[in-house]
């Protein structure tokens, strides 16, 4: 298994990419259009936990691992590292099954030339690859034992492994030295995996293996890619929704020193030049006139996304919620448009040569960009190679909308590799956003103080349809797969009804970290708090009283009990501090937050956050804490400040100067509590973002008696005082 071995094992395809939705969901969508109401509820049941498996089928160890001369092993990760720490977790899993020291495992990005690729997102990297990486690593271990048995002429059963060595009686050889003696590999049958009771690394603290390169500033990101004869591209897009080019004066741009080519399309104008400065200067000199709809503003979008408007699809209907209509408690909530605000913009280097393309990408979804390039330029997918780079944050922004087609067309126009990146303004105005939402919740309490009936109506734009076949929209009727994700009530209530109201928006919307869970948890957990105060005044006990002994609710109850003890929930607190609680289930992970706030200079100040998380099997405790801390800060930002607005058919926020995000001065004390409540790992990157907004809102009510029903909370709080 030398580094030079590039041959495929028969039956495996290095380039087999599957859609992120999974073949099972596509199969469901292919059912007959008639009977779709039953289909919708069935899909809702399947997708409520957002459990999406691995989208790879090639498990040949030669495509995953390389044995190096120093007896280290390189794992070629199908997933991209975008700050979430998966390279470290993958290394830990591989080290366990390969029986080698953790520091001997190196992890790099696979590419379509030397490995398998998988789409990165929906918090499933570790959970979906937990078994797969171990299986491939164990297969490699047993393959080495099989080869050693032939070399030594001893039974395989007599050979053991330890710290990267093969041992049989007085015989001993390293993995690397054995590999040097093998000219033809025979792959072992899939072995039995090691028992988790014998793990050396999994479950213990491990330092991030990608930190040294990042600290030393090594060229690992898309912006660092440099190729021979490479030139630079820049694109002028319409700043307006769906703007079409009416006319353009490019004469000044063409006369800019260093400009090689100008390419005009229906929706953009591209420039290629010898330097970044030259190409940016040239684009600034283009005078373009755009055709666009001028009469779109924020109020129009809020009116469009309103419960009762559009197509309503019932996805949960248990019992008889007609009981809720009499003496119902009603809560109405709104969340705004949200930008991803990644510090790293979208970046791609495209090299088009003889109807073949090599793409160096900072992107989450290789299947998507391979497909769009193939369709846009009529190139066979087999002729499109993808070489991933590290991402400077993804958060769903780099799952679909990309500038890859523009880069390929510019490269084709000049016959050279072209380095292209979005400007900050283009990231805000020409990417895609999280759709705004509107929620109406109704609840009725029984004489026992428990909820008798519960209804949730949510209006939202689409998030998942871009990732699904065209047949999805007419069959599903509404995007409850992602945009409605988390809208179903998870508590034990006898009568529940959930309806998702769908309208398409005049701008592009898609995945945002936490997807539907962020908005839906804000509405549901804020409303649960209101019902709790109506019932018994104890938000913690009220939630526990609505958890039964089913697996997920039992885990939810346990996390509530843990966070109550660790936060001192039942203890007295200073009168100037408000304390709020919220919890959610997402991707089979339970996340709960207790937040403490103060009002300082008339503004909400989050002073402390305690997050308790049950992510199932814990791989790297330190990595999970980092993920929870990052999600907490992003959630505070989106909860307190972030809001996209529209005027005259365009987003009003072109940069951070008028799109406020969290700052260091906003950082509270954060404590993370880990609880291993299942035998298999589940999602970590997104679940902890969901409970923060309602926990802050509930804490403000606890302190001031004001119910905040819309995000951003700082704005809602100021309006509540007027």
How many β strands by DSSP? Answer: 26
Overall structural class, as computed from helix and strand content, comes to: alpha+beta
What is the rounded distance between the termini? 71 Å
Strand content: 15-25%
Please, how many helices? Answer: 20
**What can be said about the biggest beta sheet?**
7 strands, mixed
Shape: globular
Radius of gyration: 27 Å
Please state how the strands of the largest beta sheet are arranged side by side.
9-10-7-17-14-15-16
Helix content estimate: 25-40%
Give an overview in words.
This protein is an alpha+beta fold. The protein has 20 helices and 26 strands. Strand 21 and strand 22 (589-600) form a beta hairpin. Helix 4 packs parallel to helix 5 (125-152), helix 15 (515-535) packs across helix 16 (539-545) and helix 15 runs parallel beside helix 19. Residues 1-25 have low confidence and may be disordered.
Present the secondary structure layout.
Blueprint: H1 23-29, H2 36-47, H3 61-64, E1 65-67, E2 73-77, H4 86-98, E3 105-109, H5 125-152, E4 160-162, E5 165-168, E6 171-174, H6 175-180, H7 211-215, E7 231-237, E8 244-249, H8 251-254, E9 259-264, E10 268-273, H9 276-284, E11 287-291, H10 298-304, E12 311-318, E13 329-335, E14 347-353, E15 356-361, H11 366-377, E16 384-388, H12 404-414, E17 418-421, H13 424-429, E18 437-445, E19 451-460, H14 472-476, E20 495-502, H15 515-535, H16 539-545, H17 551-567, E21 578-586, E22 589-600, E23 603-614, H18 621-640, E24 646-647, E25 650-651, E26 669-674, H19 692-704, H20 713-721
Parallel strand pairs: 2-3, 7-17, 15-16, 19-20, 23-26
Antiparallel strand pairs: 1-2, 4-5, 5-6, 7-10, 8-11, 9-10, 12-20, 13-18, 14-15, 14-17, 18-19, 21-22, 22-23, 24-25
Helix pairs in contact: 4-5, 11-12, 15-16, 15-19
Pfam family, one: MoCoBD_1
Domain Aldehyde oxidase/xanthine dehydrogenase a/b hammerhead: 216-294
Protein name: Molybdopterin-dependent oxidoreductase
């Amino acid at each position: 298994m030398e580094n030079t071995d590039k041959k495929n094992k028969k039956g495996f395809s290095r380039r087999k990419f599957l859609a992120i939705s999974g073949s099972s969901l596509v199969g469901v969508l292919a059912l007959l259009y008639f009977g779709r109401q039953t289909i919708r509820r069935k899909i809702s049941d399947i997708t409520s936990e957002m459990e999406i498996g691995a989208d790879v089928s090639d498990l040949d160890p030669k495509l995953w691992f390389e044995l190096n001369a120093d007896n280290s092993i390189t794992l070629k990760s199908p997933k991209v590292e975008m700050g979430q720490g998966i390279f470290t977790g993958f290394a830990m899993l591989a080290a366990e099954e390969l029986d080698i020291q953790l520091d001997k495992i190196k992890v790099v990005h696979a590419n379509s030339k030397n490995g398998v690729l998988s789409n990165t997102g929906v918090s499933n990297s570790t959970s979906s690859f937990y078994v797969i990486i171990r299986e491939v690593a164990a297969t490699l271990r047993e393959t080495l034992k099989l080869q050693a048995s032939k070399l030594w002429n001893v039974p395989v059963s007599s050979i053991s492994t330890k710290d990267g060595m093969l041992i049989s009686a007085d015989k001993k050889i390293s993995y690397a030295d054995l590999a040097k003696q093998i000219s033809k590999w025979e792959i072992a049958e899939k072995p039995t995996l090691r028992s988790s009771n014998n793990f050396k690394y999994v479950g213990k603290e491990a330092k991030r293996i990608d930190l040294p390169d990042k600290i030393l500033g090594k060229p690992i990101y898309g912006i660092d890619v440099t190729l021979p004869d490479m030139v630079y591209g820049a694109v002028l897009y319409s700043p307006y929704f769906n703007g079409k080019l009416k006319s353009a004066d490019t004469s000044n741009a063409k006369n800019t020193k260093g400009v090689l080519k100008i390419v005009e399309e229906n929706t953009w104008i591209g420039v290629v030049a010898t330097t970044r400065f030259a190409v940016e200067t040239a684009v600034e000199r283009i005078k373009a006139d755009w055709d666009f709809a001028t009469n779109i503003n924020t109020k129009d979008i809020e009116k469009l996304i309103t419960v009762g408007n559009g197509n309503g699809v019932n996805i949960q209907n248990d019992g008889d919620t007609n009981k809720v209509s009499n003496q119902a408690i009603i809560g109405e909530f709104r969340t705004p448009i949200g930008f991803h605000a990644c510090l790293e913009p979208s970046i791609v280097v495209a090299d088009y040569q003889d109807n073949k393309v090599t793409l160096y990408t900072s992107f989450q979804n290789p299947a998507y960009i391979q497909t769009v390039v193939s369709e846009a330029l009529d190139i066979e997918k087999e002729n499109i190679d993808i070489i991933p780079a590290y991402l400077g944050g993804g958060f769903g922004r780099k799952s679909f909308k990309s500038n890859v087609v523009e880069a390929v067309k510019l490269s084709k126009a000049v016959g050279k590799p072209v380095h292209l990146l979005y400007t900050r303004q283009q990231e805000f105005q020409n990417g895609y956003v999280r759709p705004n939402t509107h929620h109406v919740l109704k609840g009725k309490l029984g004489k026992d103080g428990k909820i008798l009936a519960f209804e949730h109506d949510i209006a939202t734009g689409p998030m998942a349809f871009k990732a699904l076949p065209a047949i999805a929209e007419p069959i599903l009727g509404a995007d409850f797969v992602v945009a409605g994700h988390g809208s179903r009530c998870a508590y034990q209530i006898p009568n529940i009804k959930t309806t998702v109201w769908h309208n398409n928006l005049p701008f592009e919307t898609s995945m945002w970290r936490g997807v539907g869970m962020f908005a839906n948890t804000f509405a549901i957990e804020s409303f649960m708090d209101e019902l709790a105060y109506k019932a018994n005044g104890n938000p913690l006990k009220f939630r526990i009283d609505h958890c039964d002994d089913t697996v997920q609710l039992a885990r939810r109850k346990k996390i509530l009990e843990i966070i109550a003890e660790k936060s001192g929930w039942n203890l007295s607190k200073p009168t100037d501090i408000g304390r709020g609680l919220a919890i959610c289930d997402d991707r089979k992970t339970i996340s709960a937050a207790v937040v403490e706030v103060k009002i300082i200079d008339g503004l909400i100040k989050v002073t402390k956050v305690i997050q308790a998380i049950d992510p199932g099997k814990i791989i790297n405790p330190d990595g999970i804490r980092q993920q929870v801390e990052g999600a907490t800060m992003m959630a505070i930002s989106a909860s307190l400040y972030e809001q996209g607005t529209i005027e005259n058919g365009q987003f009003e926020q072109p940069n951070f100067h008028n799109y406020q995000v969290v700052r260091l001065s906003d950082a509270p004390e954060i404590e993370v509590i880990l609880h291993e409540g299942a035998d298999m790992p589940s999602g970590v990157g997104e679940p902890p973002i969901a409970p923060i907004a309602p926990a802050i809102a509930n804490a403000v009510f606890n302190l001031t008696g004001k119910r905040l029903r819309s995000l951003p909370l700082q704005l809602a709080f100021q309006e509540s005082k007027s």
